[in-house]
Amino acid sequence: MAASADVTHDVVSLLSSPERDYLLRNNGDQVKIENLKGKKVGIYFSASWCGPCRKFTPTLVEAYDEVVSKGDFEVVFTSADEDDEAFKGYFSKMPWLAIPFSDSETRSRLDELFQVRGIPNLVLLDETGKVVTEDGVDIVREYGVEAYPFTSARIQELRDLEEEARRNQSVRSLLISPSRDFVISSNGNNVPVSELEGKTVGLYFSHNSFGPSNDFTPKLVRVYEELKARGENFEVVLIPLDEDEESFKEVLGSVPWLSLPFKDKFCGKLAQYFELSILPTLVILGPDGKTLNSNVAEAIEDHGVVAYPFTPEKFAELDEILKAREAAQTIESILVSEDLDFVIGKDGVQVPVSELNGKVVLLYFSAHWCPPCRAFLPKLVDVYHEIKAKGNALEIVFISSDKDQASFDEFFGGMPWLALPFGDSRKRFLSRKFRVSGIPMLVAIGSSGRTLTTKARDMVLQYGARAYPFTDEKIKEIEAEEDEIAKGWPEKLTHETHEHELALTRRKVYYCDGCNEQGHAWSYYCEKCDFDLHPKCVLKEDKGSKDGWVCNGEVCKKV
């Protein structure tokens, strides 16, 4: 919170200028600033070009409309727009007051006074002009009109109520609002929330336009229908996050479960309550209404209906199943799916997956549109050729995230290895299995078919071809060699190129600030300045020492 918190301001002098004693409505009417005396005031820093602002403004409008009738609250918009036309267009959607766009001096003064470093920003003042909070955006997002009158005491009261609600959580406390005690069925009928009591309930957070949600929904339908056919006391309630009502209706009409109404306020509240961070998410409530699991979507992907009833005991059992699968894993169990038992080489030639048996296989998750992927590819190609030249049993399989066949063909054309065909259904399984959240990613599968590491990209960058066969034992061997090389080097020193002391530090990959070449393993490093010097640039060579060696004291060692 900025230093202006807990400071009291005279609202008239705060919002006026020597030439102006009024504020504007969006129809051009002028309102005397003195009319705000004795009112709670929110100063709203926002702009039309700011996406988060445009998203938050309707939320603030909703809260304002419910509170303004009390007669003791007002909001004043101070714009960060770049021109008067943009200001007017944005302000036309706001029911409150604004500082004229022409008064840039007052707008700048308020920015500076409240140390506004990001928007949207909502500063809330009480009736005396005292700053109640500068976290008004977070408060309104989280609590809406319930936070009124926005005092710290009220916020604490709401947090205490939340804590009590968590302790006494039930399906009723989660799904019933002051204006609604029902959920809706796929045909639009109201179903009392009370009918869910005593059941295992899945709260399904989903967004129809989001690909992973669309992919997961049919799997959940199959699990749901099988559990219903078995007579299990299970129900699903959709928590829709869609922006388009037609899209919501289309989805609800195609699934067999219940839902909160479209754009119900509790959708956002439940997303906050369960700290939603990924879609799809399926929260499981036990028959007592308490949370059994915060997200079983992945378990359903991996195990289907076997994951029911989603209890800790069941998940312990599933963990043992996964361990057994890992122990029995082969390259075929990873890359073969029904009749898809091949990868492709150049010109689309099909290569049976069985030909990869006995080899170390690197699964290369990458895409042409990804700059880090394009930067990494030449290094990987060089390492591939170097390992193969030594007669080692290695293969790489490219798993593409490209958006079209042409991009795939262009990128794969520069690779000397194999690939899954573009758009192959196995990619989704592999991405989920290896938790691919960013690319490029390189997964190493050993000659036995067991997973060696999901961090093979780091190994390639750091150790090059020496990393083969990508086992823990090999990396420990390399690190031991590097430790031996560094013996006798000074642990700390100073150098003419840098003002601070440099410490001998193990570094994965870096660029030397002396010679601008890439280094790895060891650097003379200044953490404060993120400054690296390669040992060969720091340690002076004795006369008669050979290139690639450094001599320090009584020992000459390779760099």
Short descriptors:
Glutaredoxin, five-stranded mixed β-sheet, TryX_NRX_thioredoxin_dom, 4 domains, single chain, 559 residues
Please give a quick description of this structure:
By secondary structure, the protein is of the alpha+beta class. The protein has 19 helices and 27 strands.
Determine the fraction of residues in helical runs and give it as a percent range. 25-40%
What structural class do you assign from the helix and strand content?
A: alpha+beta
Radius of gyration: 31 Å
Low-confidence stretches at least 5 residues in length (pLDDT < 50)?
Answer: 541-547, 550-559
Domains, number: 4
Shape: globular
User: Would you tell me which CATH topology of the largest domain applies?
Assistant: Glutaredoxin
Pfam families: C1_2, Thioredoxin_8
EC number: 1.8.1.8
Family: Belongs to the nucleoredoxin family.
GO molecular function: thioredoxin-disulfide reductase (NADPH) activity
Describe this structure in words.
- Helix 9 (245-252) links the parallel strand 11 and strand 12 (258-259).
- 35% of the residues lie in helices and 23% in strands.
- The protein folds into four domains: 9-157, Glutaredoxin; 170-311, 3-Layer(aba) Sandwich (Glutaredoxin); 329-473, Glutaredoxin; 487-556.
- The protein is an alpha+beta fold and 559 residues long.
- The protein is built from 19 helices and 27 strands.
- The strands form eight sheets. It has a five-stranded mixed β-sheet with strand order 5-4-3-6-7, with helices on both faces. Strands 12-11-10-13-14 form a five-stranded mixed β-sheet, sandwiched between helices.
- Pfam families: C1_2, Thioredoxin_8.
- One of its GO terms (molecular function) is thioredoxin-disulfide reductase (NADPH) activity.
- It catalyses: [protein]-dithiol + NAD(+) = [protein]-disulfide + NADH + H(+); [protein]-dithiol + NADP(+) = [protein]-disulfide + NADPH + H(+).
